[in-house]
Write a structure and sequence with these properties.
alpha/beta, seven-stranded mixed sheet, 307 residues, 10 strands
Length: 307
């Protein structure tokens, strides 16, 4: 069994992550395991910080233009001949000295299509300026194994997973998603549609990046834009119509109340944003924010279609 560790890099120092992985490969004599990095047009500061890794990994590719989270994952297919690919986000931190061996042993026993190992964040609550992202991770992403096993497709994420190369070749990431958001959920639904099984195990990585509330709110806005683009594409509509946010929008549209929601959102957006930026808002308020943003983008797209 051969395994390529695939790490898309964007404006992050990945020295610790790569060094931890190479240490496990060397110390445990993990033959057939290699590392490939693709830098998605990071700024020069991070290119310089990570440049010493060129001698430590099998391939380090630099892209001149940013191509986004879906395209870059598909691009790894061009740089690996391994039977399996392990994808890790560049802001991940290895917290188990047997991290790679756990995946390798599981693959050897189960011959899996896709395996998701999970994720964690620090148990220590950060200051209020960083709390929104942390609360979202704790409540909706860092799910224990017993919860993930109940809904293996819905609770799949792309921060830490293994996929058989032949499976990814048959079911690549949806490259219509150019902004942040929903590429993991669409990928899992495409896997389910093609009858590929996602297995969940307890082998998490720690999310090592701390985002400010304002940075995370920008990502929430980008995810609403991504969903709007998918809803506006006939080929993608079936993939996304059962997403909770999409269901909420389609219900408002069906009942003719999307305009009413948009009207009230227009007058409350600044207040909602202020509360979210405080870091102490309930996540339901984040859902209302994303729904308002989604309606705005859908209205904009439909207006452009009519003009």
């Amino acid at each position: 069994m051969t395994l390529t560790i695939c790490i898309p890099v964007y404006n992050f120092d990945v020295n610790e992550l790569v060094n931890d992985l190479t240490r496990q490969i060397d110390n445990q004599n993990l033959e057939g395991v290699n590392i490939v990095l693709i830098d998605d047009a990071s700024n020069q500061t991070y290119k310089s910080i990570n440049s010493n890794l060129e001698e430590k990994v099998n391939r380090f590719i630099y892209l001149e233009n940013n191509i986004g989270r879906s395209k870059i994952r598909n691009l790894f297919l061009n740089y690996s001949k391994s039977e399996y690919l392990l994808f890790l986000d560049c802001d991940g931190k290895i917290i188990n000295e047997n991290f790679l061996k756990i995946y390798i042993d599981f693959i050897s026993k189960m011959s899996s299509d896709v395996i998701y190992g999970g994720r964690k964040v620090s148990e220590n609550q950060p200051s209020s300026n960083y709390r929104l992202r942390w609360r979202f991770a704790v409540k909706r992403e860092n799910l224990p194994l017993e919860v993930r096993l109940r809904s293996p497709y819905l609770d799949f994420q792309t921060n830490n997973f293994v996929v058989k190369k032949q499976v990814l070749e048959q079911v690549p990431f949806n490259e219509n998603i150019t902004q942040y958001g929903y590429e993991d959920l669409i990928f899992s639904r495409d896997l389910k549609h093609n009858k590929f099984k996602i297995q969940h195990i307890e082998n998490p990585v720690l999310n090592n990046d701390v985002e400010t509330n304002s940075d995370f709110l920008v990502k929430a806005d980008h995810s609403a834009l991504s969903l709007a683009q998918l809803l506006g594409n006939d080929d993608d509509l079936e993939r996304v119509k059962n997403i909770r946010l999409a269901e909420a929008y389609l219900l408002l549209k069906k009942t003719g109340t999307a305009g009413i929601y948009s009207f009230f959102y227009y007058f409350t957006k600044s207040t909602i944003t202020k509360i979210l930026l405080s870091g102490n808002a309930p996540l339901k308020l984040l859902d209302l924010y994303k729904l308002g943003q989604l309606i705005g983008y859908m209205n904009k797209f439909q207006s452009n279609d009519r003009s």
